[in-house]
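Running log. JK asked me to keep both predictions on one page so they can be read side by side. First protein, sequence followed by its C-alpha cells:
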Amino acid sequence: MRTFLLLTFSTLLSFNRLSFASTMELPPGLWEGISQDETTFRLLQIQESGEHSFFEIAIPGGFKKMRRTPFTNDDITCIENRCTIKTKIEGDVTRTLTLSPHLDNAFNVLESSYKDKESYISQTYQMVKQEAKSTPRKFLENRKQILSNAKQHIANHPFGTWIGVMQYLDRPELALLELYESEQGSLRVYRKGEDAFREVRSPFTADDVSIDARVIEIEASHTTFASKIILFVLTDNMISGYTFALHKGYPVAMGQ
C-alpha cells in the first residue's frame, strides 16, 4: 500500500463551562487533531478518573504505529485562558501541550518537546471535540477492506491506494485516494469531530486519469468538492497536489 498522502494532501467548550474570570478546566472527553507536518493523528483523552492519555497515531502506513503517553491531573496546570499538560517521553525528553479555547468546540494547541533548555520540536495545530469514536478508529472499522486489498495487490507506480491529509474547508482532514489503471477510483475525505462515519467522495474512471511523467491530472465527478485533481509525484511513497471544483463554469472549492 502506498503510504503518505495525497495532497500534502472547540473546546472553547462553551462560555458557560469556561469562565475567563476563573481558572480554565479540561472537562472529560476526547479531542482529535492532525500534526502540523500532517503525518500524525493526535488524540487527547481526558477522563473523570484522573487517568488521561495522549495518543500519536502515524498516518503513513494506515495507522499501524501508535504511541500512548499517560498522564494524570498532577501533570495539568491551568490558568484563566489556557491549560498546560507536561509529560515525559523517550526517557528524559519533556513534552508540553498548551491548550487554549478556539471557537465553539476546539482547542488551539502549542506542542513543544525539549531536553533541559534545548528545544527539539515546536508546532501548533487544532484539536476538535469528538463525541463518538475517534476518526482513525471509525476509518479502520469501515474502510479496512480497502486497506486489506491494497496490501494484497501490487500496482505499477503511481497507481495504488494512498492515505494522507488534505486541506478541506480550511482544516487538515484525513484523505484516501484510490488510483487504478483499469478500475474506478476516487478521492475521499473524512472530517474530524463527526459523530457518525461520513465521507465526502469524488469518483472517477480510469479514462479520467492522465499521467505525464510525474504529473497526474484527474477529471473527477463531484461538482462542489473536487472536480479537478492535480497531483505531483515527489517520491515513490509521496505525492502532493491540489484540487478544485468548477460548477457551471465558476470555482466553488479548493483543497490541497
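And the second, directly underneath as requested:
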Amino acid sequence: MDNNRKNGVILMKFIQKLSVIGLSVCLLSIVFSSASMATKIVTEDHLNSVNNKNKNEVHNYKNDSAKILAQETKTVLIKTEREDKSLLEQKTKEFEEKMKMEQIAFIEEGLKKATTLQDVEKVKSEAANLLKKEKELFKKESEKYVKKVIDTEKVNLAMISSSYKTLIDDFFTFNKHGFYYYDVNKNEFIPNDKVKTIEEVKEFEKKHKEDTIVKDNPINTLILFILLGSLCIIPLFISKRQNEAWS
C-alpha cells in the first residue's frame, strides 16, 4: 500500500513537472510568434511601399508581384550638394537699386539738354542700351555669387533588394529586380542616385549582387511553343477538312 502511494506521489510530481514544462513551452511559443509577427508586419509595410512605388513608376507592372529578397536597416549619413543663391539674391537686389538710380540720373541729365522730341527719344534709347550692357556684365559676374553647399543628414535607411514581375499582352510575364532605399522615419523612398555613393549602400548592393541576375519565366517559352504549334497544326487541320469535303 505504501509502495502504491509512493509511486502515485512520484507520478503526480512527474505530471506536475510535465505541466510546468508544457506551460513554459507554450509561453515561449507565444513570445516568439509575437516577435515573428512583429517582424513580418515591418516587412509587409515595406513590401506594400515597394508595390505602390512600382505601380506608379514601372510600366506594365504586375500588381502585387513584388517580393523582398533581402533587407537591412542602418543609420547612414546622406550628403546632398545644393546651390546657395542667397548672396546672388542680395547682389541682384543691390544691382537693380543701383541701376534704377543711375537710369533716373542719366535720363534727367539727358532731358536737360534735349530740345526736340528726337533728342528725348535718343536719351531713352541710350538709357536702354546702357541698362542692357550693365545687365550682361552682371550676368557674367553672377556665377561667382553662387556657392556650392554640402548638406548632411542622418537617415534611418531601409535597404531593400526586391524582385517583381511585368506583364505584357496578359500572357507573358518577365522577372525583374530592383534596389530600393526607404527613409523609415519620413516614410518615403529616397532616389537611388542620392545614396549610391554611401559605403553601406555599396556594400549592400555588392552583397546581394546575385539577386540582380533574373531568369526568364519558363511559362513564356511554353506559351510560345503552344502558339507556334497552333500555327502549324491549325493550317494542316483546315487543309485536311477541305480535302475531305472535296473528295
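Observation for JK regarding the second prediction: The CA atoms of residues 234 and 240 lie 10 Å apart.
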